Amino acid sequence: MSVFFALFGREIRLVLCQPGEAVLAMLFFLLGGAIFPIALGPDPALLAIVAPGILWAMALFAALLSLDRLFQSDYDDGTLDQLMLLDLPAPAICLAKALAHWATHGLPLLLVAPLLALGFGLSAEGIAVMIAGLALGGPVLSLIGSVGAALTLGARRSGAILPLLVLPLYIPALVFGVGAVDATLGGFPAAPHLMLLGAFALASVVLAPWAAAAASRMALD
Question: Is the pTM of this model over 0.85?
Fold first, then answer.
C-alpha cells in the first residue's frame, strides 16, 4: 500500500506543479454552466427543471478535457514502462492514476457545483442530492475515462476518439445522478437512484482498473 500511496502522491504533485489543466476544467464547468441561464432566460421554474441535466452534462465534458493526458505523458517519455515494473499490480497503478485524476479535476467541480446550483435556483434539498450524486459519480467519470485513455494510447487522434469511447459508458451515471435530483424536486425519495449510482461506482472501481491495465499493456507491447 505504501507504493500505491506514493504513486497517488506523485500524480497529485505532477498536477500541482502544472495546474493549468485542472483550472481549465473548473473554469469550463463554471462558464459553461453559467451560459445556460443566460440562454434560457430568467424563468426560475424552467431553470430548476433543467439544472440537474445541465450540471451533470457539464461535469462530464469537464472531465473529458484532461483524460487524454492521464497516461499519455508517461507513455511518451517511457515512465509508464517503469511504472509497470513496480512492486504493484498494473490494475492498482491504473486505479491510483484514476483516483488522482478525480482528486485534482473532479473534486474541485464538486466544491464549486453548489454555486452553479444556486444560480439555477435549486432548493437546498436538491443541491444536497446533487452533491451526493456528484460525490458518487465523480470517481466513475475518472475510472471509466482511464479505460478510454489507455485504449487510445499511441493513437494519432486520441483526443477525438476518447470522447466517442467513454461518453456512452457515462450514460448510466448521468441517468442515475439526474434522476436522483429530479426525484427530490418531484417529492419522491432519491435513495433508489443514489443506490444505483453507488452500485455503478463500485462496479467501476472493481472492473475499470483491470480494463485500463489490459489496454495499457497492449499499448506498451
Answer: yes
CA distance 134 to 178: 10
Biggest CA-to-CA distance, the chain: 57
How is residue 67 annotated by DSSP? G
Q: Which cell goes with 93?
A: 497503478
Percent of the chain with pLDDT over 70: 98
* Alpha carbon 115 to its chain's center: 19
C-alpha span between 149 and 167 (Å, rounded) = 12
Determine contact, residues 197/76, Cβ cutoff 8 Å.
no
**CA-CA distance, 46 to 178, in Å (whole number)?**
15
**pLDDT tens digit string along 66-103?**
787 788 888 888 888 888 888 889 999 999 999 999 99
Positive or negative CA dihedral for 66, 71, 77, 79?
positive
Structural domains in the chain (count): 1
Give the count of alpha carbons within 13 A of 67, CB side only.
32
Range of the domain at 159: 2-220
pLDDT of 26 over the 90 cut: no
Cα separation, 95 vs 102, in Å, equals 11
Indicate the SS3 state at residue 215: helix
Output the average pLDDT for the chain.
88
Q: Calculate the alpha carbon distances from 51 to 35, 125, 151 in Å.
A: 12, 14, 33
